[in-house]
Amino acid sequence: MKNRSRIALLMVALFMLFAVSITAYQSMSKIITLVDDKQVTHYETDANNVQELLTQLEITLSDKDTVEPALDTKITDNMKITIERWKPTVHFTINGEEKSQETSAKTVGEFLTSLGITLDENDVVEPSQDQTIVDNINVTVKTREVKKEVEDRPMSYTKKVVETTDLAYGETKVSQQGKNGVKTVTLEREYLGGELVNENVLDVVVKEQPVDEIVLKGVQKSVKDAFTGENYAYTKVYEMEATAYTISDDGWGNKTASGMTTFVGMVAVDPKVIPLGTKIYVEGYGIAIAGDTGGAIKGNIVDLFFNSESECYQFGRQHGLKVYVLKDQNVDVKAERTNY
């Protein structure tokens, strides 16, 4: 009977000791919420302060990580502890677009993967993808892209100058306005980092032809000497009837109405039409001077001097012959005629 009583007392004592231990443990244990780099976890702990808790959980901090509340803060029930992990900042440019972002990636390649960027062998990355990430690193990505593009392009018109004697010398006048044409060009363009690096023309279709601009330009009126090739500027031209005359001797000593002696290049005129002394060019006869008159020379008629009667017969009478009044009235007719 005594043994049973002792056993009962022993069991009661053990139960009470166990209950007291559980109560003591429960009074020491606390529930905390740990937010580590946005990852939330709940723990039950008997740690006295934040530092002890992190040691129990084998959580290590870098020099730049921050903890809230401070490491020496006493643990209380339902406490929230937040760890902000420091991340290096990456400044990156993708096809000319600049951005900055913090990252936990260890290399440039991991960082680009985190952005969802897939590169091929034609793309360019600086620095290389195996470069270790450091704070404020600059990363440049240039992707290569080939596009087929269609665009309208102007076709420049041509300016043409047409010489005319209908305008004063040096005067210009636009007789037809120029207008650009239009062509449709199909191109294959290669871009690297958004910049054009190569271009090939695949097709060209003319939509509208250009219209040439025509500019009239006044030129000096001139006649080309059929005998010497010399060009003589003129101010006026007549269409005349022409006859021929000579003298019975050699003709060089005979005087004319102007006081000059006759020579091949002397022309008899009507002074009312062409004044005496005027330097002219006669079609088929050459450079000459209006230096003589005649009773039958009235109006638009000229009488050309030749050295012989046979030449006069050969010339005969001609109609519609052009007679040009030369611009240069200082020309030496006799000197010019020596080139014939």
SSE blueprint:
Blueprint: H1 2-28, E1 30-36, E2 39-45, H2 50-56, E3 66-68, E4 79-84, E5 89-94, E6 97-102, H3 108-114, E7 124-126, E8 137-142, E9 144-155, E10 159-164, E11 172-176, E12 181-192, E13 195-208, E14 213-218, E15 222-224, E16 231-245, E17 266-268, E18 279-282, E19 286-292, E20 301-305, H4 309-315, E21 318-326, H5 333-337
Parallel strand pairs: 1-4, 5-8, 10-14, 16-20, 17-19
Antiparallel strand pairs: 1-2, 3-4, 5-6, 7-8, 9-12, 11-14, 12-13, 15-16, 16-21, 17-20, 18-19, 18-21
Please characterize this protein's 3D structure.
With 340 residues, this protein is α+β, with helices and mostly antiparallel strands. Helices cover 16% and strands 43% of the residues. The chain is built from five helices and 21 strands. A hairpin with a 2-residue loop joins β5 and β6. It is rod-shaped, with a radius of gyration of 57 Å. The chain starts with a helix and ends with a helix. About 3% of the residues have low confidence.
Number of helices: 5
Mean pLDDT: 89
What is the chain-wise order of helices and strands? HEEHEEEEHEEEEEEEEEEEEEEHEH
Strand content: 35-45%
First-last Cα distance: 175 Å
Number of strands: 21
Class derived from helix and strand content: alpha+beta
Q: Spatial order of the strands in the main sheet?
A: 16-20-17-19-18-21
Q: Can you tell me the overall shape?
A: rod-shaped
Helical fraction equals 10-25%
Radius of gyration (Å) = 57 Å
Oligomer: single chain
Q: Biggest sheet, open or closed, and with what strands and sense?
A: 6 strands, mixed, barrel
Low-confidence stretches: 17-27
Protein name: DUF348 domain-containing protein
GO molecular function, one term: hydrolase activity, hydrolyzing O-glycosyl compounds
Keywords: Signal
Domain G5: 141-221
